[in-house]
Every structure is written in structure tokens, then in C-alpha cells.
Design brief:
The protein is an all-alpha fold. It contains six helices and no strands.
């Protein structure tokens, strides 16, 4: 979901979405969307052992596995594969 879809979902303009997120969360729309995409990825990695990273990236709107991997590592200081392995060991 991008800014246009988010604006349509809540019934406001794209500019209003940007203002609301900037004032309420102190982040850009892209940062807000990526935060939620990464949280969804973390959840999926912990619960869906069989989904390939590339498919997960496409499903969540990252486009490519490499884009997901870079964003995930920047936020969680580990790759999605490393997180999946840790989740398996904790289960």
C-alpha cells in the first residue's frame, strides 16, 4: 500500500495523509509504510516458515528480496533469513 492507497482508504487527500503522519508519528509516509511492512515481514518470518523471501517481498510491497533484505537489516540489524532461523530456534 502506498500513499495514494492509504489516503483513499481513510478518505483524505495524499497531502493530508502526509501531514497527519508527520505530525502524529514524526516520520514520512514512506517511513511509516515501511515500518508497517517490516513489522508484517517480521511476523511472517516468525510464523510462515515456507514462504520464500522473494515472495514475501512482493507480497508486502517491497518489490524485490534485496529491497526487503536491506530495509530489514537496517531496522533489525539482521537479515530476514537470520531472523527466521532465530525464530525457529526459539519455538
Amino acid at each position: 500500500m502506498g500513499r495514494r492507497e492509504l489516503a483513499a482508504a481513510i478518505g483524505v487527500s495524499q497531502e493530508e495523509v502526509s501531514r497527519i503522519i508527520r505530525e502524529g508519528r514524526d516520520m514520512t509516509v514512506l517511513a511509516y509504510i515501511n515500518h508497517h511492512r517490516l513489522e508484517a515481514a517480521r511476523h511472517m518470518l516468525g510464523n510462515d516458515e515456507d514462504m520464500p523471501i522473494a515472495e514475501m517481498a512482493r507480497t508486502l510491497g517491497f518489490g524485490t528480496a534485496r529491497t526487503l533484505q536491506r530495509a530489514f537489516k537496517a531496522k533489525y540489524d539482521m537479515t530476514p533469513t537470520q531472523y527466521r532461523e532465530l525464530s525457529r530456534h526459539d519455538a
